[in-house]
Amino acid sequence: MKRNELEFEMEDILNFLILENSKERVLDFLMDSLSEKELLKIALKFNVAKMLEQGISYSRIEKKTWMSSATIAKTSKSLNWDNLWYKNAINTLSWNY
């Protein structure tokens, strides 16, 4: 599915996530929508991206997160070359602290 098609299908969900300012309500929504395993994988991949941004080695990240080197490499590729979601999220969160 192309990005614009996915964005169209998810428009209401995206608007909710943008407008909702309660962590509890967003987490409730995500917990109703995704499995615990899916949520954990998203959180772990984001933590991998943060560690990569800090210059932590693949081997150390593997030991800390139990993520495979393939997942770490894919996250690194996304961090540096794809849609920059990870980098944008990390930068946004850095401004809020």
Write a structural description:
The chain is mostly helical. It folds into two domains: 1-33, no CATH class; 35-97, Trp Operon Repressor, Chain A. Helices cover 78% and strands 0% of the residues. It is built from seven helices and no strands. Helix 4 packs across helix 6. The radius of gyration is 15 Å and the shape is globular. It starts with a helix and ends with a helix. The mean pLDDT is 87.
Say how many strands there are: 0
Biggest beta sheet attributes: none
CATH architecture of the largest domain: Orthogonal Bundle
Q: Structural class, from secondary structure content? A: mainly alpha
Share of helix, binned: over 70%
Determine Rg (CA atoms, Å).
15 Å
The CATH class of the largest domain, by name, is Mainly Alpha
Query: What is the name of the CATH topology of the largest domain?
Result: Trp Operon Repressor, Chain A
Looking at the structure, what is the overall shape? Answer: globular
